[in-house]
Sequence to fold (184 residues):
Amino acid sequence: MTIATSKLTLTEFLAMSETKPASEYINGVICPKPMPKTRHSRLQSRLIRSINEVVEAQQIAYAFPELRCVFGERAIVPDIAILAWAHIEFDDRGELVDDIQIPPDWTVEILSPNQSANRVVDNILYCIQNGCQLGWLVDPDDRSVLVFRSDRQPQLYRESDLMPVLTEIPLELTAVEIFNWLKM
Fold:
């Protein structure tokens, strides 16, 4: 769903108050993200935890939930944005800088019910075209993950397929392991 308004500039959009759930700015239009449901939230939190358990202590990368990334002509909010540690900005106190002005190194979107797969794929492709190394589209209904990389065609992963991650991240996950997180 998009909000029909006259086209805004990116600067005008960024000056607006934040919304819950987050809205994205795509081609001059405000596009609200759908409210996450339980399966979405469960997969998001478990994947973030699994990634951060192997990357944070070694300062390899960090996985952020719902982090607004502003780059090119868009402001997007991936379900999970993974930034390489070298791309995370810190201020003089050593604290995180709030505004992210680059694409994530790895973007993860978890398809929600009634969400347009093509709109989500469009955001992933936009990230890849602007320097993101890896994109996942996780589909809980289909129990599959569509993976995007800049150097090859998208590939579909299911069952015991080992999921590709950024090369510096020592994480081994299969598609079935990810979807087994839906069982508690």
Observations:
- The radius of gyration is 16 Å.
